Amino acid sequence: MSIPHDEAFKKLLETFFEEFIELFFPELHAMLDYSETRFLMQELLVDIVGEEARELDLLLETRYKGLDGYILIHLEPQSYRDTAFHERMFIYFSRLFERYRKDHKLIIPIAIFTSDEVREEQDTLEMSIPEHSILRFQFLKVELRKQNWRRFIDSDNAVAAALIAKMGYTTREAREVRREFLRMFIKLRTRLDQGRLALIMSVADLYFKPDRTQDEEILRELIDHYPEEGEVIMELMPAWKRWGYEEGKAEGKAEGKEEGQAELIRKLLLNGFSPEAVSEAVELPLDKIKKLM
Hints:
By secondary structure, the chain is an alpha/beta fold. 45% of the residues lie in helices and 19% in strands. The strands form three sheets. A five-stranded mixed sheet has the order 1-4-5-6-9, with helices on both faces. A two-stranded antiparallel sheet has the order 2-3.
């Protein structure tokens, strides 16, 4: 069952907020005290005349070392083109300022652009008259497609791994990006629990388009480089669990389904996976797996 993009992306930001700030805004990262961070209930903002009501995507409170006080950070993912988006960000900011200015010394708005297009997103709203500036509002932004994926492959940052497939790369680099993601994921296994690992994989799967032949080759390469990880590499590739069934459906025959699944199981066993690991991965009883050995 597929996971809606916005839901998965918001969950990633909630779970790995500190890692997100550290990855894209290192100077801000150094100024935040994450031990006193909490997400606020989804804020409903209404315009002056009440004709438009919008909910913020994510709003959190944290402590800012430079001010020795609490601040608000507003995170707003944006996946489609909106020429008035910068105005909307200003409206959000002004409503937050109106509501929270007595308790929070600073409000930091951050937009995360996740569109597949590479373009310069407007991040500033200005008003002026000759020789006098009336307003200059500028929010922080991350444009994922404009990020060079190679900058992040040596990172142990969970957000970098989850979003590397959404960054800028060519068609010829796609296989290398896939391989580097899996390598980064292997490294993360040593320090993250299963729930966080599953979240990273879920977000990454929204952007990758696995190819069976290519993924088989990558898996063999990873097993050669990380033999001690052989049994657990299966966890990195949810597509393996589906291939046998999808082949059968494509052929329109029940026997095709069974043959495709049997072929998959034999390949996994030949590549060094234990019967127990294969049984769990394809969700079949252990005795049926052993019959194919």
